[in-house]
Amino acid sequence: MEWGMENIRYVFSSMERSLPLYLESIGYSAWERIFQRPEGYPYYHWLHTLDGEGRFELHGESVMLSKGKGVLLTPFTPHSYYPTSERWSTIYITFGGAAATAIMKALEMDRSTFYEESDDQQFGILFNDLLERIASSDSHSNMEASSELYNFLMQLRKFGMLNNQPSLSQYYRRLQPIVSWMEQHMADNIGLQEISDYAGIGINGLHELFQHAFDMSPYSYLIQLRLREAKRIILQHPQRALREVAEQTGFNDVSHFVATFRKKEGITPGKYRELHQTADHAEQQPLELDEHYK
């Protein structure tokens, strides 16, 4: 679909408004106009610049939305915007739903804020694909639009740069070699200092990177890697003693392993093994475990 001189707008029927997440409208404004909304808009509203530029006023802040920049608004957020170039072309989505607030909170997108597309993803291309699928459908009330909207929000969360900060995908790319090293050395006696030394980043900087990308500290991520590997070993080698599993996954001793496993998984590793054994394994001789570790 080529962006021309004519506006494009699709409005969805009330049938879809019983869905947990639904599109209210989607469109392209070839010539964006002046809007003043002192009461805000009753739905979530995403607006993105394709060409030209305009000024957007939000919470007393005035921001220039040039090409590749946009804004996400929560419902009923007062705002205004107007073109500052001869032609300001934008694309937009408005949406709601009974689960919309919960979904936006889960994606950490539940506040009005400015976005910028990263080199990894151009939102105009992504939006164009979405709009073409809607345009080619038999009806503008197709329920598939709900899943398309969710996918779009996931892409915005992953690739959108929030308040001039790197996007999640950029954080992931920067952390990939560090995570790979952690996976290779999780059985060794490593901690924050060793990870920091390998990465060449101070502990505070490392902590900030992991918090942005994974919403957890680097040490918590290491524990998660170790527990994931421990579960793999337990399931693939059900006769292996827990002491060996603990040693192979970097825990100081079996007591620490059992306590950590119970805290994170809600059950002991012995019980985890029990629950996942097949009928064939159950017929084999009982595991030799101290009662303390069951």
UniProtKB/TrEMBL annotation:
Keywords: DNA-binding, Transcription, Transcription regulation. It holds the Pfam family AraC_binding. PROSITE patterns: HTH_ARAC_FAMILY_1, HTH_ARAC_FAMILY_2. Residues 176-275 form the HTH araC/xylS-type domain. It comes from the Bacteria. Residues 270-294 are annotated as: Disordered. Transmembrane segments: none annotated. One of its GO terms (molecular function) is sequence-specific DNA binding. PANTHER family: ARAC-FAMILY TRANSCRIPTIONAL REGULATOR (PTHR43280), HTH-TYPE TRANSCRIPTIONAL REGULATOR EXSA (PTHR43280:SF2). This is HTH araC/xylS-type domain-containing protein. It comes from Paenibacillus montaniterrae.
